[in-house]
């Protein structure tokens, strides 16, 4: 039972990892004007990604210093996911 719960948490962390990666790539494509926010599809995808990540990003953004146009919040979240997945979960579930 514990291993099944461990696997579910790992899968959810993997999904969150890819959501953050896709959002970062999409924001770069928009910033370099490769894709246009005038497109309904692009706007819908970005809105959905923003709504999925905002609850995770907002507490971290309150703590981090303002660096202007540079937002390091996704990198901090990806680092936290990596630490949780590799250093916290295995000992917590007795898999070490």
UniProtKB/TrEMBL annotation:
Segments traversing the membrane: 6-31, 67-88
Keywords on record: Membrane, Transmembrane, Transmembrane helix
Gene Ontology CC annotations of this record: membrane
Superkingdom of this protein's organism: Bacteria
Pfam families assigned: CCB3_YggT
Protein name, entry field: Integral membrane protein YggT, involved in response to extracytoplasmic stress (Osmotic shock)
Organism: Sphingobium indicum BiD32
